[in-house]
Amino acid sequence: MKNFYLIPNTDKPEAVRFSLLVQKYIEEHGGQAVNASHRMMNGHVDPDDVPAEMECVITLGGDGTIIQAARDLARLQLPIIGINLGTLGFMAEVSTEQYENALDVLMNDRHLVDERMMLRGRIYRNHELIYDGLALNDITLHASGEFRAVKYELLVNDEHLARYFADGIVISTPTGSTGYNLSAGGPIVMPSAELMTATAVNPHTMLQRSIILPDNVRVTLKLVEREDQTANVYLDGSVYKNFRLGDEIMVEKAAQKVKFIKLAKDSFIEVLRTKLEN
Questions:
Q1: What is the pLDDT of residue 205?
Q2: What are the backbone dihedrals phi and psi of residue 174, each rounded to the nearest 5 degrees, phi first?
Q3: Is 63 a catalytic residue?
Q4: Which of 79, 97, 235, 263 is the most exposed place for a label (fewest CB within 10 A)?
Q5: Residue 146: exposed, middle, or buried by beta-carbon count in 10 A (0-12, 13-18, 19+)?
Q6: Is the pLDDT of residue 265 over 80?
Q7: In whole angstroms, what separates CA 84 from the centre of its chain?
Q8: Of 11, 63, 104, 236, which is the active-site residue?
Q9: How far is CA 146 from its chain centroid?
Q10: 71-119: per-residue pLDDT in tens?
Q11: Phi/psi at 253 (nearest 5 deg)?
Q12: pLDDT of residue 271
């Protein structure tokens, strides 16, 4: 591949500066690089701004930059690779010291492509769709306002499964299993798996267990009992506020997938081992 779309974290001047080095290297080696830094609004990229000939997206920042790019450009289905300018992440696998070698691998088509599932979250109020979005990592329902916990019901394919009194719940993809899901006590899942995990956040019970669900089910969450309790819904950290009694959020596997470029077959295992050893 020769045509690259560069997306730096515009909140980090060093990421923008480094994107210029990457752009220069690509162009000096016969490729084309379009830098999105001047086109971005509040950290977002518009898929309509991406030239049709682009073959790959390179993010410069951390895992958050990759996640936002994956959501923004989901319909384009371009493979993504991240150059890491932050702390050790699970997705941005290329260090600043390795970037020239990584670009050589890409431009000579010696890379691998790893597909990851995404989630689609839709919020309904009075049976009317009021929000629709994608998430690569997780969709989270969390108590808001003066309430430290909320009571909610979990349904699978419209069948009641459980009722919780907790701070919230995380519905996670395998990619997101090492994020908030892990902090809430959920399992680590290999990112190539096709499943969802449901992990309650600080449940008011002596028993806490995550639920592993296949990728072909629809999960529904709704608040129960108290009209004055409210919650927020987060899709990869992007917040939808004032989820209230009577609202429903339906979570299912998205039609879109994210394509990640991998330079080493076992890179996730290596990063996971490093994390566990620290």
A1: 81
A2: -60, -40
A3: yes
A4: 97
A5: exposed
A6: no
A7: 16
A8: 63
A9: 28
A10: 999 999 999 999 999 776 678 889 899 999 999 999 999 999 999 999 9
A11: -60, 130
A12: 73
Q: Which amino acid is at 80?
A: I
Both structure tokens of 198:
């449901």
Q: Which residue has the tokens 């997206």?
A: 57
Which regions of 85-149 does DSSP assign to beta strands (E)? 94-95, 112-125, 128-135, 138-143
Alpha carbon distance 275, 278 (integer Å): 5
Looking at residue 97, what is its pLDDT?
A: 92
Question: What sign has the CA pseudo-torsion 145, 149, 155, 160?
Answer: negative
Cα 79 to Cα 83: distance, rounded to the nearest angstrom: 14
pLDDT of res. 247:
95
Nearest Cα neighbor of 21 from 102, 115, 124, 105 is 102
> Residues 6 or more apart from 27 whose CB is under 8 A from it?
33
How do residues 113-163 score in pLDDT, each as one tens digit?
999 999 999 999 999 999 999 999 999 999 987 767 899 999 999 999 999
Q: Which two tokens stand for residue 35?
A: 């830098």
249, two tokens: 């959020």
In sequence order, the β-bridge partners of residue 123 are 131, 249
Tokens of 196: 């969802």
**Counting Cβ atoms within 10 Å, is residue 55 exposed (0-12), middle (13-18) or buried (19+)?**
middle
CA distance 256 to 76: 9
Q: Tell me the DSSP string of 33-56.
A: EEEGGGT-BTTB--GGGS-TT--E
Tens digit of each residue's pLDDT (9 = 90 or more) over 235-244: 999 999 889 9
Tokens for 113, please give them.
Answer: 């492509």
Mean pLDDT (whole number) for 62-68: 93
For residue 177, pLDDT over 70 is answered with yes
Q: Which two tokens stand for residue 254?
A: 């998205």
**Domains detected in the chain:** 3-111+263-277 (3.40.50.10330), 119-255 (2.60.200.30)
